[in-house]
Amino acid sequence: DVPKATEPQGDSDGPRRGSLCDQHCAAINNVHGDLGDLGCHLHCPRIPPAMPALSCCQQHSEEVCESCVVKTTLTAENAVEANKLSNNYKFGFKKWKSHVTARPWEDRSEIVKELYSDLNVIRGSGGSTVTCGNVLYLLLFGWWLSLLYVLVAAVMFVTVVGVPYGRLCWDLARYFLWPFGKVIQKVEVPKSRRALGACEAGEEASGAGESSALLGGPVPSCWRPWCWADTGYWQRAGAVVWLCLGYPVLALAHGLVCVTAWLLVVLIPVAKLSARTVTRVLLLPPERVLVRRLRMTEVPLEGEVILCCYRAVNPYYYKYAVDGINVFAVNLLPLVLVTLVLGYVDSHNRLTSSPVKFTLALLSIMPLSYYIGMAIASISAQSNFAVGAVVNATFGSITELTFYITALIKGSREGNRCYAEIVKSALTGTLVGCVLFVPGLCMVIGGIRHQEQRFNSRSAGVSSALLFLSVGGVFAPTLFSKVYGKLVCGECHNVTQNPLGHYLCHNCHFDLMGNNGTLYYSHVQPLVYTVSLLLPAAYLIGLFFTLKTHTHIYDIHISDCHMPGHHHSAVVHWSRWRALVILLLSTLCMSACADLATEHISPILTNSTISQYFIGVTVLAMVPELPEIVNGIQFALQNNLSLSIEIGNCIAVQVCMLQIPILVLFTIFYSTNFTLVFSDLHVYASMFSVVLMNYIFMDGKCDYFQGTVLVMVYFILLAVYFFAPSPSGC
Q: Which residues pair with 509 in a beta bridge?
């Protein structure tokens, strides 16, 4: 929702118009969104006008200059956003796409401005109001709201003193049946009309000193019984009856409509309509509320416009944010509270079952991941690089590690090896999903909008090298155990009825604990500790390589996109202390939800007919990564595929080089059943995924077909896990 940037002016001292490199850069640079543009920094020599206009890319007839592919420009609206981009969008760090500052109102598009309007703006004729969304409003809310207003109007007429409010409810009943194309105004009532009210024959009374407030005003000089409804006494009596009998019922109904419409997101205009009715319209004196059809009025209207709605459904409300927080994260926050209350209060499963609690706990992880990412981005934007790097590295993987550690602790307490196997499946599922599914899905969705997308192949090459190293290191103990371990089978049958013939064996595995565990404790365990030390060291070397000595490989430039004449100071949504408090609270709630998920996963593992492998590599692995997948899709839609690919690579590298060593370190201080020995299925799936990813990323460009290949391979691997037998120990 950032306005289109103005076209850059050509340089007068070096004509470069028409070069192939500039054409490619212009194609790459066609990006809109809150991140800005994926641009190119061309390092071309300045040539005097007298010399032939030579471009830096003339020698490449069919290729794009290297600087166009390697250089990536991200547009920042202010210094705080620039600091966030420079601190977070680095190699090896998780990319948090949250916008930490408020955007200037005049720089927003008309679509976004409409999202934040108060439904009191009258527009010109916009066509028919009979739309599918408006009909949906009529079916969901309009008919029963109108009926409720009719009933309340009847009650007000019965009370006599509430007749003015009865008339108001009758008008509002017709309004809420179909509010589109109508307006509700706050009008100034002439003093003569205030004094006369219900008096007959147009008899005037002195209205000096009267007030139109809801609960006040001196008594006018009209003392006839049928005129008492407009006197101060009867005004107060009618208001009391209204506040006791009519307003609570209507406020409750509108509150229900408001909550329901808000949760549906696209119906937020209906939520605003109900909220403004409760807080403004129903609290005004009835004589000051005027309901009129828009086509019967003149523009501009006399008096204040309180409500003017044209459509009930707006699909762009997925962009809506409250204090910088996306509306979906706001709507899912009550789910966290429900999960915690049900999980710890209903410990005996009297209200809900364990599968329901497990599902709620997993769904609660998604908004908490969003809040953690928002807090990390806010702290990084207002701090230096060192603080941002420490916060990102510390809390970037807190979601996954919290779940893994709580699962290992529960498995150790119960003596159940199945939890350790589930953790291994989740680790493998995260690795395979981030290598195949995340970049593949981003290529498919981005390729629908852009025919061909290019990315930083050199940076992807560094990530690929680290992935090869990390996969080889993680599975080295597994390969070692296959070579030197003793094969033990649970059940064998002689096929040929010959003692020296062939045997068919089931439930076979390599035993590392033979001879009192000599092989494991003397050979495998030291190898695991060695790998766990080498992998973080390789990760740090990769960071030093890309952030210090070879920064040009992963080069992100931050440019200024202030509109001409606009100079805005950055208004931060969350301060550092507020972001820190939210980060700590979200982490605490994340730990509680992870504890509930592991507490109630046992019935699912025991009673489910689906392989535990499949549960681990899908639900437990990919649900915590849903915010990352959304970020990657948004980057791809903005033609910034480099960051989309880097999101998946960064998570995969962190799984192998940070999360697994941390789990090994945890097992040193807390004895668990976790050993760095994976099943053959995990080894083959991970290695094949990394090889395929490197083959796809070799040329630095892609399209939706290559993304489809990655996604299809991922689904094939999921099918393999689905039909695979459960791991030993489960």
A: 488
Question: Which phi and psi (to 5°) does residue 504 adopt?
Answer: -110, 115
Could you tell me which residue, 345 or 91, shows the higher pLDDT? 345
Q: Are 458 and 698 in contact (CB under 8 A)?
A: no
Please give the CATH topology (third level) of the domain spanning 320-495+502-723: A middle domain of Talin 1 (1.20.1420)
Per the CB < 8 A criterion, the answer to whether 703 and 452 are in contact is: yes
Q: What amino acid occupies position 464? A: S
Which residues 6+ apart lie within 8 Å of 187 measured at CB?
288, 289, 290, 302, 303
Cis status, amide bond into 8, omega within 30 of 0: no
Count CB neighbours of 430 within 10 A: 24
Residues 131-183 have pLDDT tens digits of 899 999 999 999 999 999 999 999 999 988 889 899 999 999 999 999 988 88
707, 447 Cβ separation under 8 angstroms = yes
| Tens-place pLDDT, residues 366-391 | 888 888 888 888 887 787 767 777 77
Please give the average per-residue pLDDT across 190-200, as a whole number.
Answer: 46
Question: What is the pLDDT, as a whole number, of residue 202?
Answer: 40
Per-position DSSP letters for 263-305, written without gaps between them: HTSTTHHHHHHHHHHHHTGGGS-GGGEEEEEGGGS-SSPSSEE
* Position with higher pLDDT, 197 vs 123: 123
Structure-derived torsion over alpha carbons of residues 435, 438, 439, 444, reported in degrees to the nearest 10 = 140
* Contact criterion met (CB below 8 Å) for 639 and 450: yes
Exposure letters 451-465 (e unless 16+ CB within 10 A, then b): eebbbbbbbbebbbe
Domain ranges of the chain: 116-187+236-316, 320-495+502-723
Query: What is the separation of C-alpha 510 from the centre of its chain, rounded to a whole number of angstroms?
Result: 43
Q: What is the largest CA-CA distance in the chain?
A: 122
Distance CA 358, CA 604 (A): 9
Is beta strand 321-322 parallel, antiparallel or unpaired with respect to 325-326? antiparallel
Query: The tokens of 653 are what?
Result: 């590298």
Q: Which residues pair with 290 in a beta bridge?
A: 185
Element of type H or E holding 52: none
Where are the extended beta strands (E) located within 129-262? 182-186
pTM here? 0.72
pLDDT score, position 106: 73
